[in-house]
Structures are given as C-alpha cells and as structure tokens.
Design brief:
The complex is a heterodimer of chains A (114) and B (114). With 114 residues, chain A is mostly beta strands. In chain A, the strands form 2 sheets. In chain A, strands 2, 4, 5, 6, 9, 10 and 11 form a 7-stranded mixed sheet that branches. Chain A is globular and about 40 Å long. Chain A is built from no helices and 11 strands. Chain B has 114 residues and is mostly beta strands. Classes of the chains: A mainly beta (114), B mainly beta (114). Chains A and B meet through strand 4, strand 5, strand 9 and strand 10 of A and strand 5 and strand 10 of B.
Chain lengths: 114, 114
C-alpha cells in the first residue's frame, strides 16, 4: 500500500537555527498538509497546500514557517528561526481529493530544539 | 476555542468488551467526521469516517454513531482486543474545494487488558 514518507525521523537543532522537514506524499495525491503534535497533546493543523500554493493555514503557521513543493515528489516544511516551543512531532499528510477524502499521514519527524 | 471535545481522556476495557469514545462538536458546518488510530511512534491512521447525512456506519468491529441534532458522534469498538490498545482521535472538517483542515479532539488512550 502506498504511504507517506517523512525524513528525518528525528531532528535535533539549536534554537535560532533553520530546519527543513521533508515529506514524500503518495504519488497520485494532489493535496498536502502539515500538522504538529506537541508531546501528549492533540494533533494540530498547520497548513494545507494545493496547486503550488497555500490554501489554508492556522494561527500557528506564522512568518517563521514556509512550505514548498520543490519538485514533483517532495513537500517540505521550513522553520526559519526555531524556538524551544517548536519542539514537537511534525506530520505530513496527503489526500487525492479535497472532497473529504481520507488524509494519509506519515510517521512524523520528531523535532527537538535545544 | 476547542472545536471538537473528546472524552474520556483514557479508557481501560477488558478483552472482549465494548470500548466507547465520545466526541462533541460546535460548528454545524462541519461535514466530515473521521476517527484516527495512533500507535506509539507512528502517525495517525484513518480508522473510519462518517458524513452527517448518515446516522451510523459500521466497518468490522468499529462503528460510528452520529447524532446531528446533539452535535455528537461516537466510536464503538466491539469485541475489543489487546491489539486495539492505542490512542484514538476524533476529528471534524469543513467543506472545501482546496484541501481541508482536520480539527482533532484531544485523544483517548485506550488500554485493552487480556
């Protein structure tokens, strides 16, 4: 079964540094998402991306965050200047349609900010 | 504002018993209600989903009951097994043509004892 792949599985970064989290969505999917989950808390929506542009973003997704689909297969989340509170699991998800078709999640990248 | 409220926070059920997890939502415009299952170290995986025009949906041992007037929906796991031990999240989303944000509940940690 096709799956969403995320790399790295764990990223440790110094506060203030830039970090890029990478995702390979399912190949025929057109809609892409990033979510985060702070340890022990619920999964929170960050951003959705369709047709090479952001379609929706949450309050969490401020100017420090950006997303990009640099080629036909990768989808990245960049955090420009990391803060301690950015420490969380970051999940990428994709769906082939926006008509409430299932979102398929990757296994996440654990981001630890020191 | 917490758009989806989930209870209980944790649940212990004996093998063969019925696990019941409840969610309530506030926004009557939500039109898609999935349940996700998450094992430690893994991303959320779609379990079952329902639209508001249906009052019940069953897939194997898993059933969603939906009460539109009460703005509540619940997950029933029949004949619960130790392998069902995981965290369960309900979610809800608005209709969209450009990708949809899942609003997750806080999760229920289910433990099924042998």
């Amino acid at each position: 079964e096709p799956e969403v792949t995320q790399t790295p599985s764990h990223q440790v970064t110094q506060m203030g540094q830039e970090v890029i989290l990478r995702c390979v969505p399912i190949s025929n999917h057109l809609y892409f998402y990033w979510y985060r989950q702070i340890l022990g808390q619920k999964v929170e929506f960050l951003v959705s991306f369709y047709n090479n542009e952001i379609s929706e973003k949450s309050e969490i997704f401020d100017d420090q965050f950006s997303v990009e689909r640099p080629d036909g297969s990768n989808f990245t989340l960049k955090i420009r200047s990391t803060k301690l509170e950015d420490s969380a699991m970051y999940f990428c998800a994709s769906s082939w349609s926006s008509s409430n078709q299932p979102q398929h999640f990757g296994d996440g990248t654990r981001l630890s900010i020191l | 504002q917490q758009q989806v409220k989930q209870s209980p926070q944790s649940l212990i059920v004996q093998k063969g018993g019925i696990s019941i997890i409840n969610c309530a939502y506030e926004n009557t415009a939500f039109d898609y209600f999935p349940w996700y299952q998450q094992f430690p170290g893994k991303g959320p995986a779609l379990l079952i989903a329902i639209r508001p025009d249906v009052s019940e949906k069953k897939e194997g041992r898993f059933t969603i009951s939906f009460n539109k007037s009460a703005k509540q929906f619940s997950l029933h796991i029949m004949d619960s097994q130790p392998g069902d031990s995981a965290t369960y999240f309900c979610a809800a989303s608005l209709p969209s043509n450009s990708g949809y944000a899942l609003n997750f509940g806080k999760g229920t940690s289910l433990l099924v004892t042998p």
